[in-house]
Amino acid sequence: MSLANSKTNQTLIIVITPTYSRLTQLADMTRMANTLMHVPNLHWIVIEDGLQIDKNIRNLLRRSQISFSYLPFKTQPGYPKRGWFQRSMALTLLRETARHFKSNTNSVVYFGDDDNSYDIRLFTEYIRNVRKLGMWSVGGWLLKSGRAEAARNFPRDATRKLAV
């Protein structure tokens, strides 16, 4: 894994994408690659849920000219499906290869699923500007009468410190 392709002092965005063999996999990965190829200073870690990588996905990654790592890690017994094990393996890979980062390189990790569509502004205007911890909810608000209203009210202890 070579992360030394940084041409600027911009924050390096590392996108971790778990994937698995299915009818729409190549189309989903193509759509995601078509977005990520427009994001400068990005490294894409793709983890295949299987015993080997898929040659079509490997070829797509090569054609995209995105800096990437592509590895197979079959989900182990006891782990839920949905890419949990693959994300954990990608984080392990990052910890083991930290020496490839320049000491002055800021980086941020984003977990991007291959079956979603992404607006490039997510990467260029938000993720790139994360300094410590960035998070947002998945899903949306319930709309009633043209106003957004929370579907549930979750009380929060104002004295509780947040994990940052």
TrEMBL record:
Q: What is its pathway?
A: Protein modification; protein glycosylation
Any one Gene Ontology BP term: chondroitin sulfate proteoglycan biosynthetic process
What would be one Pfam family of this protein? Glyco_transf_43
In what way does this protein cross or attach to the membrane?
Single-pass type II membrane protein
Q: Which domain of life is it from?
A: Eukaryota
Q: What Gene Ontology terms describe where this protein resides (cellular component)?
A: Golgi membrane
Q: Which residues form a coiled coil?
A: none
Return the EC number: 2.4.1.135
Under InterPro entries, the record lists: Glyco_trans_43 (IPR005027), Nucleotide-diphossugar_trans (IPR029044)
What reaction does this catalyse?
3-O-(beta-D-galactosyl-(1->3)-beta-D-galactosyl-(1->4)-beta-D-xylosyl)-L-seryl-[protein] + UDP-alpha-D-glucuronate = 3-O-(beta-D-GlcA-(1->3)-beta-D-Gal-(1->3)-beta-D-Gal-(1->4)-beta-D-Xyl)-L-seryl-[protein] + UDP + H(+)
Write the record's keywords in alphabetical order, separated by commas: Glycoprotein, Golgi apparatus, Manganese, Membrane, Metal-binding, Signal-anchor, Transferase, Transmembrane, Transmembrane helix
Tell me the protein family, please.
Belongs to the glycosyltransferase 43 family.
Reported cofactor(s): Mn(2+)
The cellular location(s) given in this protein's UniProt record come to:
Golgi apparatus membrane; Membrane
An annotated Gene Ontology molecular function: galactosylgalactosylxylosylprotein 3-beta-glucuronosyltransferase activity
According to its UniProt record, where is this protein mainly located?
Golgi
Question: So where does this one cross the membrane?
Answer: none
The UniProt record gives the binding positions of Mn(2+) as: 115
Under what name is this protein listed? Galactosylgalactosylxylosylprotein 3-beta-glucuronosyltransferase
Taxonomy of origin reads: Eukaryota, Metazoa, Ecdysozoa, Nematoda, Chromadorea
